Structure formats: structure tokens, C-alpha cells
Amino acid sequence: MNAIFYKEWIKTRWYFLLAVLTTLGFAGYCMLRINRVIELKGAEHIWEVMLQRDAIFIDLLQYVPLLVGILMAIVQFVPEMQRKSLKLTLHLPYPELKMVMTMLFSGLVLLVLCFASNFLLMGIYMSGVFAPELISHVLLTGLTWYLAGIAGYLLVAWICLEPAWKRRVLNLVITVLLLRVFFLSPTPEAYVKFLPWLAVYTLLTASFSWLSILRFKAGKQD
């Protein structure tokens, strides 16, 4: 298992660093926007805007985690399929299901670390500006987008691991429809009561990759 983690780390380490810097850059820019409004009009104004207009000031982040998750899956699994090294990996003396889940888990760990750094940055900054209720309002709204990033990673990994191009197209259509669920409502905290179920829904998408692995092992190309 340690060898698998190390192999996945070698493949994704530079992308992981880029993803952390990029997402922190976007999150930091959102915090700078808040800071600029405070400097120009005062903290009272920004509180008023948030309470009366339901503004959260991190709208720029909406699709960033999704893009980061999708690219993580591409970086991690496309070379594996192009070089046809997945077949060799699956012939190692290790249970195939554990092998695939370990590969996915390694990517998930990196994504969670990346996304957690964003929440840490935003939480630290906003704790000196907003009341706890407003901080919770902003971060819970953003949490849905970050869950979309994790779901995007798992679903695109499923597409990449699928051996047949026709099935990949079908998987892509299903992926788009499933990811649409995360962006049905633009209202802040629209998903807050649904978040536990949304998290389960996200994690269940990890099982899709196993279906593609079974087809890959069976040599199905259509």
C-alpha cells in the first residue's frame, strides 16, 4: 500500500503544488476583495450587504474546486491508461479492489489537503472581520462547491479508467448530469440541510471506477 501511495504521489506531486497555490490564490483574492470593501466603506457596510443582499463575496470560487478535481483525475489516470501501465499495476500481488481504492484515496487525500488549506485561509481571515454566524454562512456555501470538486475527481477518474471510448462518452454525459446537482441553486446555503446526504452521494461515486476496472480486466473495448 505504501508503494502505491508513493507511486501516485510521484505522478501528482507537481500538480498538487500547483493546485494548492492556485486555489489559495483565488481564495486570497476573495479575501482581498472583502478587505478592500472594508477599507473603502467600513465593516458595517459589508455586514449590511451580507445580511440584506445575501452576499458571500467568494462567488469567484464557485467552479474552481470542480476544475481542480477534474484536472487531478486527468493528471493521475490519463498517463496510466496511455502507457497501458494499469494492466501491470493490476497484476501486482495485491487485491484489485484495494488497489483501485488506494489509488483513488491517494488523490482524495491530496484534494482534501488542498481544499482544507483554502478553508483555513478564509476562516483565519474572516474570524477577525465577521461574526461566527456569517463565517459559517460563507463557508457552508463554499463547502458545496468543494464537494463538487471531489465528485468531479471521482467521476472523471471513472471516465479515464473506462477502456471503451463509446462508454466514456456515456460516462461523460452521466458525469455532467450528476455534477449539475451541485449547482442547481445559486442561493447561499441552499444545500446546508442536504450537505450530509450530498457528502454520501459524493463518496458513492467512487464505486463507479470499480465498474470500469471490471470491464478493463475483462478486456471489453465496446
TrEMBL record:
Transmembrane segments: 12-35, 55-78, 99-126, 138-161, 168-188, 194-214
Keyword annotations: Membrane, Transmembrane, Transmembrane helix
MF (Gene Ontology): hydrolase activity
The protein's name: Membrane-associated HD superfamily phosphohydrolase
